[in-house]
Design a protein that fits this description.
Number of domains: 2
Shape: globular
Strand content: 15-25%
Signal peptide: 1-22
GO cellular component, one term: cell surface
Largest sheet: 8 strands, parallel, barrel
Domain CBM6: 450-578
Radius of gyration: 27 Å
Family: Belongs to the glycosyl hydrolase 5 (cellulase A) family.
InterPro entries: CBM6, Cellulose-bd_IV, Galactose-bd-like_sf, GH, Glyco_hydro_5, Glycosyl_hydrolase_5
CATH class of the largest domain: Alpha Beta
Number of helices: 14
Strand order of the largest sheet: 3-4-5-6-7-8-9-10
Helix content: 25-40%
């Protein structure tokens, strides 16, 4: 009888919503997502990681991990009051209207908001009245303002509960989980608070057309049947997860019949065992994809779920890789009619559109926090922290247009374009790291272009130096300049530039090498221009000397130079052209 009552409840829940009831909103229609006018839509989204919820790795603080640890570390070098003020300023500076306007201009049509529950309600153990929820205006006000910016740009805002009460998994930083406190799955109070929070959010935003949907629990990773299955990838039933997802859906539908509900399987969104079929007619399945190949086989199980259960699928989180991987992943998704959402808009590092600059004195803070150095003075720490807050602002970020180019233009075009417009008169210098923007084998060829850390037996990293730009070419900082590093046999780089006049030019390459084995071939405008240019031994990887090819003919106007490394093992910093 219990089984039949449960099934009857699911049927009744499914009846709460119909596709027709969601007219005017982003919604599921069979295997597709459609917009307010019923047209198929591909979501091209960006996640606001690091805004409401910090993870240590985003700021080169991996040993600290969770946000509560970072906050405690800031309080340790200043005070609790100043740490609280720091976080208020953080929320004000990190994501602003200019960020959303910029993302719309770059081509994104949706935003995923990773929410920390503690901005919306008190932790269950801190409630003055047990079982009663205290609502905090801060999180709702931030969401309201973000929604206003999205509406102005006609972008969908998808609410994502990234840090659920108690934390939804064994990966502690992604949910700011404290391991000594009951998790979401170990506490009925945490589960009830999660349900109540979603009901509150749905009640507030039920009539908002530009709320794209409710991504109800980010990346569950928990062993329900086997506690040793810490990632939740081997679970076969996932009964507690399904029960909570159904309870959340029911609470949402009590107040909001319109908005799309997005669910994520166990195992970081990818294990759907026991969760299907869908219990609501306006539902989509999210999967997450990192560090594997961009082949149809890599996503086949999700294509099968879409086909079998007649529901849309959405790549709700991906990224953290090289530009070449980005282009391949987006092309794969869009060929298969799958929307996508990148992770993330900004952090310290190059694998995102915006890079947060590391403030002066920051490494000293990091060294102290990780037990490698002395404690800075309070005034010194405060100066560093204030600079960090200023560096959060978009106008103070480093803009990586190579990332945006890879995510939009390169997904549609094989053509390469100049990274920096360079005009050569009587002479000029091209930095080696300013090779053209474009796909692998169009703008460059490198033997190691991406990270496949979740693919057994594949040990590659992309840009080994992780500086300057996010293409697969290896770049490192050498003194005050960036140089191409770890050049291997058969790799090449392409440079587009303009010459003011026809004529003969001498081309020299600034190289550094411990041996004299390196050899370079030049292709100019598709024709062989020079072969077997010898790279001399310079006495070390930071000792630079020129190697030259004289009397190379340039034509007036556009020239395309391809520098082919027949034999690698050296570094390249500059290409100098001098009219003969």
């Amino acid at each position: 009888m219990q089984f039949f009552r449960k099934m009857a409840g699911l049927v009744a829940l499914a009846a709460l919503t119909t596709t027709a009831g969601a007219q005017g909103f982003l919604r599921a229609e069979g295997r597709d997502l459609v917009d307010a006018d019923g047209r198929k839509i591909i979501l091209r989204g960006m996640g606001l990681g690091g805004w409401m919820l910090q993870e240590g790795y985003m700021f080169r603080l991996s040993p600290l991990g969770q946000q509560y640890k970072i906050k405690a570390a800031i309080a340790d070098v200043t005070s609790k009051e100043k740490a609280d003020a720091f976080y208020r300023k953080w929320l004000a500076n990190h994501t602003r209207k200019v960020d959303i306007d910029s993302m719309a201009a770059w081509g994104f049509n949706s935003i995923r908001l990773p929410m920390h529950y503690a901005l919306y309600t008190l932790p269950a153990e801190e409630e003055p009245v047990k079982g009663k929820d205290t609502w905090l205006e801060e999180g709702f006000a931030l969401t309201d303002e973000l929604l206003k910016w999205c509406e102005a740009n006609r972008m969908y805002l998808i609410l994502d509960l990234h840090a659920a009460p108690g934390g939804q998994g064994n990966d502690l930083p992604i949910s700011d989980r404290h391991p000594d406190k009951p998790s979401l799955w170990q506490s009925e109070a945490n589960q009830q608070k999660t349900v109540a929070l979603w009901r509150k959010l749905a009640e507030r935003y039920k009539n908002s057309r530009w709320i794209g949907g409710y991504d109800v629990i980010n990346e569950p990773n928990w062993g329900f049947e086997d506690p040793k299955d810490v990632r939740g990838t081997a679970e076969t039933k996932n009964e507690p997860l399904k029960k909570l997802l159904v309870d959340i859906t029911k609470a949402i539908r009590e107040v909001d019949p319109n908005h799309l509900i997005i669910i994520e399987g166990n195992g970081f969104g990818n294990n759907y065992s026991g969760l299907m079929p869908a219990w609501d007619k306006n539902m989509a399945l999210s999967f997450h994809k990192y560090g594997n190949y961009n082949s149809k086989a890599a996503i086949q199980k999700f294509l099968d779920l879409r086909q079998q259960y007649n529901v849309p699928i959405w790549l709700g989180e991906t990224g953290e890789n090289s530009n070449n991987w980005f282009t391949e992943c987006i092309r794969l998704c869009e060929r298969e009619n799958i929307g996508w959402c990148w992770w993330q808009e900004k952090k310290m590092g190059i694998a995102n559109p915006l890079e947060i600059r590391q403030p002066a004195g920051y490494q000293k803070l990091v060294d102290y926090w990780t037990g490698k150095g002395e404690k800075p003075s309070a005034s010194e720490a405060e100066r560093t922290l204030n600079e960090w807050l200023d560096n959060l602002k978009l106008e103070n970020n480093v803009y990586h247009r190579d990332v945006i180019d890879a995510m939009f233009r390169q997904t549609r075009s094989e053509l390469s374009i100049p990274y920096a417009v360079k005009e050569i008169g009587g002479g000029g210098t091209i930095r080696a790291v300013d090779f053209d923007l474009g796909r692998q084998r169009s703008a460059y060829f490198d033997r190691d272009t991406a990270s496949y850390q979740y693919t057994p037996g594949v040990n590659t990293t992309g840009n080994r130096g992780r500086v300057y730009r996010n293409d697969g070419v290896d770049i490192r900082k050498a003194g005050n300049q960036y140089v191409v590093d770890h050049i291997e046999d058969g790799e090449w780089l392409q440079y587009t530039f303009w010459a003011k006049k026809d004529g003969k030019y001498d081309i020299s390459f600034s190289v550094a090498s411990e041996t004299d084995a390196g050899r370079i071939t030049l292709l100019l405008n598709g024709e062989m221009a020079a072969t077997d240019i010898a790279v001399p031994a310079t006495g070390g990887v930071d000792r630079w000397r020129p190697t030259e090819k004289k009397n190379v003919s340039l034509r007036k106007g556009k020239n395309v130079l391809r520098v082919w490394f027949d034999t690698g093992g050296f570094q390249l910093s500059e290409i100098n052209l001098t009219k003969n």
